[in-house]
Amino acid sequence: MEDMHSDGNGPDLMSVAYQLLSTKAERVLRRMHVQDVKALLSLTEDDLLHFPNCGPKTTREIINLQEMVQKSPRHLQEMTRAEPDFEGMLQAKLSARARNVLRKLRAFDRKSLRDLTEEELWNTPDCGDKTVKEILELQRRTAASLPTDNSHNQPAPRIQIRDTSLLHQDQDISEILESELSVRAYKTLQKLRVSDLAGLFALTEDQLLHTRGCGWKTAEEIRDFQCEMAQTLPTELRQLARRARQRDDPAPVATQPVDPNNPYGSLMSWLARICRSQRAREVFALRCGMQGGPPLTLAQVGDIFGITGTRVQQIERRVRKRAAAVDAQAALRPLVERAAKLVKACGGQMTELELTNALLVTGNDGGKLRHATRFIDFLAALPAWCEAGLEKGRVRTNDPTACVKFISSFLLRAAQEYADERIEDDLWSIDWERLKDAIAVRCRHSPEYSHIVRVSDGLIEEALRPLEPSIRRRDDRAYCGPLWRLLFGSRTELVEEILLRCGRPMHQSDILGEVSKWRLNDRVPSLGNVRSWLERSTKTLLWDKGTFVHRYNIEVPNRLLRRIEQRLFDKLQGDIPLYSVYEAFEHHQEKLRRAGLSSPLALYSLLRERADARLSYPRYPTVLLAGKERMSVTAALEEYALEAGGTFELDELRRHATEDLGINETLLSVYLHTYGVPNLVRVGHAAYCHLSYLGTDSRKVRELAEHVAYLLRTTDNISVDLVFRQKAVTCRAAGIRSPEMLYSVLDLDGEGQFEMPGYPMIGRYSTPEARLSMRREVEEFLREKGAPCSIDELEEEFVERRGFKRGLVNAVAESQQVYRYARASMIHADVLEWTAAKQEKIEGIGRQQLKRAFKAGRCYELVEKLMELQGLPSLGAGLAWTRTLLSELLESQERFQVLGNARNAFVESPNEHEIQRFEDLVYRILADEFQGASQLQQFEEFMRTKGIIRKRVTPSMLGDGDRVCIRGKAIMLAELGADA
Q1: The overall pTM is greater than 0.90
Q2: Cis peptide preceding 910, ω within 30 of 0
């Protein structure tokens, strides 16, 4: 060894030594600055184990290199002299992965490179398909420069064991296993209690893969070690190794081709030849759907075999790798050629499912392959697929475009002609198989495409793509575009199609009815849903309140719109911030209505659609100059209040809004009383002022707010008139001149102490409903009363104590929850414990009594007759029935009418006598009882006796007098009066 360090060959020998190492071991030595053999030999095992990223496997590899350098330095020197440029050639020709593979195989010269076999490369860890092809290509290029020597056909074993006498079947080889294998592989063999050759060669791949901590890379390492060990065995033990390997490794893949007429049996035999174990075959078959069911996921297959999804993926990848071998692919060539013929006979294109059924579902047990679409994907990845004239990754010939264009030219016309479902002329559908037959007939009559035996789904689907807006497929039928959008399109497409077919503006409630008609199985939408769908659409326009129109159904009067745009532009040139489209609509109203534009909203939608570059349309109904800062109507009104410099009348504001800004009075009222103008204070009945000019005393305002809070401690709400009367002096001191001004100031400066639902009401802040109306408050009072309440009691509570208007008490009688119990008292429906069943009962009693009256010759019945009956339902709180209450309840559902000021006579509505008013009842009584005319006094006496009126019959009670008239002291039918 001394000559190695003194003759100057150290660095050359070291470069050869680096070639013997893996990339990781080489990096460790270079980071340890090992430049010569002397430094290499000086390393100890402890030095290596304590060095970062140097594990036991890398340490053992470097120790083995030290032993090789010590035992055979002359061999290293010969390698250096024999191929001085070999490493440079590898650097230039091969990738880093390929060079690492050659190092593992000890290929350090051209001769050893030539002696490598393809099987050795496949069995080397980390050597994939690309690396094998790369090394074989380099091997082919360098083979011409080397002499042929048959003595080197067998590669030298990588394990060099000199004392082969130790290798006997029962000899302990634990030391050899520990030195030659990685730590993980050695521990795996320890778990399996392998310590001799018999145990080593008895191992199978399944045993290794079922061992905890042994993955597929570790299993491959042990299997490769079995092969290498077999090459070093004495002659008498090689037969033992051969028999042990044959138990797990299948025979080389035979070139026997797959039978296209019996694909299932042939494919199972082919799969058995390329798979190493039964589990691998089953994993591949289940993943490809070759066992009668659909392809399973990684997790599903893993659950079947009790392994992880990652392990299933590894097994499948290895099977695909073996199936990619040349002889394995050659066996599938007849199947691929059959597939090419089938695709060509179907017009040049098929779906994977169609090809699976036509190619694989034949012969014995062919039904087990009806879901094997993933196996078709596997076939498409083979080189034979492209060689057979099929496109890579698709089930089609190289150029089916011409056939697709030919079918597209008549497909829509044929579908419409042969449609087997026709709702209207333009709403039709056709069965998919019927459509395929119709297209096949057309193809047979064409000389160019008469070779097409049958039309495939894939070909028609390709031909449908350019026609997709007009015809669409769903399940086993093809639908015309309008019908498809009505039945299966998105919600926006549905409402667009409904509007388009309507041909005119349509209210959203009518659209909702059409939606429910076409989508019977869907959840019934609300009006809000329909409106949101219409607003999202780019093909619909808002035409009026709640009304929309399809843009294709309107004829746009462009010339008129240009004049309107010019008028708006001229108006905005003045000193105004915005302008309303209302004025433009009113100015051109007659022409716009003739053009079909019936509302300002329709005009605004069309103007926004045209998008004149000079104008901007931020929000209905305002129009601004383009580029000008956006301003709302309320902001424009506030700006006018600021410019007014103090108090101004409502008429002045109305004149500015209508004449200068083009806003109509209805919209102005909405902005003033509903939306509210910011900082605008109402100081009188029709007077306003901006808050900045108000000049109120904030201390006095707080005092007034405290008084309001004090009053609300004992009641839920009060009127602002009460506060203004009680605090008149404080109001004048604060600068407040009217109840309206007080309400506005409290609304602005109340600081959330109470609720201001609307003039003149002030409510307690803690009320459950923030905007409790005055009528609702009276209703709540009656409900809590729990008994009939007199009108005097209501006026005392709400007029005198809370300050509300007297008309509020009378207006509450119009509520559906309040009934008159007597002429001067009211009661709540909850107190009566009134229900729908009770309402039906008294209405049934009323109908029975009317039938009896008809038989007696009367066209009416009296409420007091109902009071005499025993079948009336009971009332809550032990209350007794009154004639006033009974007449109120009869009229509450509008199925009966009580006529006359005595509130006693009632009829059903509608009725066979056509009595709707008091005049109609008088007409019938005059005709039936008085032959059409009577003295007025006599007639009034009759009506009082019957209980229909209280005192007299006046012309105002008879209405317009078109049926009954009063002439002097006589009352008669109108037609008799005309004759007189």
Answers
A1: no
A2: yes
